[in-house]
């Protein structure tokens, strides 16, 4: 019995959308949202869980679909669990924390299957069950926090008078570039991450150091990055907006003294419009200018700007699956496309005759070369440049026709020119690793004239989120 009625307002507005009562949420939709139906009309809902019965305030109405948000809950899904984080629903992360992990895995696996079969029209073999993460809390090896002169206030904070208490260090509120949720305990990264963040916040407030005001572009403290590895190395990067040498020295000395376990203490001065430090000088204040991760005895150097999978334990499992799917023989030439810092290339190099890695970011290629050197690997070669420009017929002729291609592109997938070059090269096996099964499916369809999918598996790298890694093995027809 669905009822439609309009919100009473003092003044009418042009788009006075209805409220829908007693809507049963049916499934998970794109980007972690949920899905219901109103007659034949699709209804995409922000939040909720499949099985919830709710009232929806429609926020957008189109011919084929509507979007809305939950304003009242009548009954809760049996798939729900109690969220363990006090910031759930305010902080932008861990949006699936209210669903049991076994159901998260089911939804993720089904999403990968649906995207590969519906978008890519892929005929799948019997898909291997999704690989669950061994840890669903404190699994990340990197977090970036933002300092803000004005934190997000909820109903508990409305009587705050102390201006120091208005400053915040945490994560941006979704849709608000100028506000952060001040975090006391985050469940994503193991200690001493929480201890470091809370200590630097207290030190800054006690000493009346200013937090960044993004609207007027002023303030001392801007961001805090904490990285760790499975072998116990720890990197802390503090980014400042104002170049106040005396205050910077005091903060960094405080961190060095209070947390002797920090093996790499670094800082940067960033006075540009965005928080990225990829184009900034990062200075080593204490310890090494990098940290080391270890996968099966292969060491990887991680600098302050290096990309590295943010779930180390599950990344190792992902690379094992990739290596297994590749089935590399000792005489094989392997191309590792979108190689990043050469993690996969170096991980599989001992099995191959030669590994050729290509990556857009020059700094990442420098790391890839170093990673080969520190491991005594001498059968890798790396190139920096736009993939579609580097991977040409002449490049393949010069460096050898690949027997196997491993490709791990960004979320946007591969450029059509790159796909065409793979099809021309005709490697016997392509292993496609993707963080976006939708673009992976699109690319697989373009390759379907020459390749068939023989293996597929989803890997859960990020519990309590909708993100999933998908690994597919393709064999030449």
Write a structural description.
By secondary structure, this protein is of the alpha/beta class. Helices cover 25% and strands 30% of the residues. It contains 11 helices and 24 strands. Strands 8-23-24-22-21-18-19-20 form an 8-stranded mixed β-sheet, with helices on both faces. A 7-stranded mixed β-sheet has the order 1-2-6-7-5-4-3, with no helix packed on it. Helix 1 packs parallel to helix 11. The longest helix has 19 residues, at 101-119. Residues 1-13 have low confidence and may be disordered.
Shape: globular
**Total helical elements:** 11
What about the largest sheet? 8 strands, mixed
**Rounded radius of gyration (Å):** 25 Å
* Main sheet: strand order: 8-23-24-22-21-18-19-20
Task: Round the mean pLDDT to the nearest integer and report it.
Answer: 92
Number of strands: 24
Topology:
Blueprint: E1 4-6, E2 18-24, E3 27-28, E4 34-38, E5 41-46, E6 53-61, E7 65-75, H1 101-119, E8 128-131, E9 142-148, H2 163-166, E10 168-172, E11 180-182, H3 193-206, E12 221-228, E13 234-240, H4 245-258, E14 264-269, E15 282-287, E16 291-295, E17 298-302, H5 312-326, E18 333-337, H6 343-348, E19 354-359, H7 362-374, E20 380-384, H8 387-390, H9 393-399, E21 404-407, H10 416-425, E22 429-434, H11 437-447, E23 451-459, E24 469-476
Parallel strand pairs: 5-7, 8-23, 13-14, 18-19, 18-21, 19-20, 21-22
Antiparallel strand pairs: 1-2, 2-6, 3-4, 4-5, 6-7, 9-10, 9-12, 10-11, 12-13, 14-15, 16-17, 22-24, 23-24
Helix pairs in contact: 1-11
